[in-house]
User: Fold this.
Amino acid sequence: MNLVYNEQVKLYARKSTWIMFVILAVIILGIAILGKTVGDLGNEEYGEDWRQQLEQENAELTEGMDEEQIAYDQVVKENNYYLENDIKPQNYDVWQSVIDNSMLSALLSLFTIIVAAGIVAHEFRWGTIKLLLIRPVSRTKILFSKYVSVLLFALTSLVFLLLFSWLTGAVFFGVNGINPTLVLNSGDGFVQVSALHEITRSYGFSLVNLVMMSALAFMISSIFRNSGLAIGFAIFLMMAGSSIMGFFLQYDWAKFILFANTNLDQYYRGTPLIEGMTLPFSVMVLLVYYLVFLVLSWVFFTKRDVAGH
Assistant:
């Protein structure tokens, strides 16, 4: 616990850590301001005549459009779903704002990679690794404390994203109930879900991706002594993940690639990236990669000779 506390102190003593949270807060605030002013989010009001409002909106959207264009217009499809199922649309509020902001978890992955890829490599760069290793604790405990610190940062940043999104959304868009029912596009059509269920699902899957990316970056940090190289290589892998998948997508063994399985949302919103993939399969693949990353981190860190560093 003392080692973990020491790592947390070192992490939050850096200005770069607080800059990450400031950047995230500015982006959340900027999205809310733009949505309220330019995008008119939260400005629509559905009263007792909501059916007439939706029908008029459909008429305006489909005017001058051919049948093929109408078939692909998601707004018209969503309006028809409300009309066919006799559901009054919910005004855009804090809950939908929080759900929309879950996309910012990709930015959190970048921040977590920067922290994870440097947390071990920085010790070699700054020459402080010897100060750690002369303590009467094993290298395994030192490494474990660093990894726990990375996980705590990932969890803290995700909670910050959730809470600041809720606070900003409540101020700009208001709160329509404690747990309203929302209509969302599932890929195969529209479905009704509770707001809390959707938030738990989207942010939970984001946490899975954060954990996997942090484990990958942590392994790279344990292998390389150069923090810049470790951070750069880890960010490159994250950014190039989709390109790598696009290149190997034609092969059957592509489903075993890490980046094909990190997005568990593909089983709930859309179709699996590769035919035959299932949620249990992806979970097993992620567990194997996770164990491999941690074992390699432990092997390189515990066996490395630092006497001549």
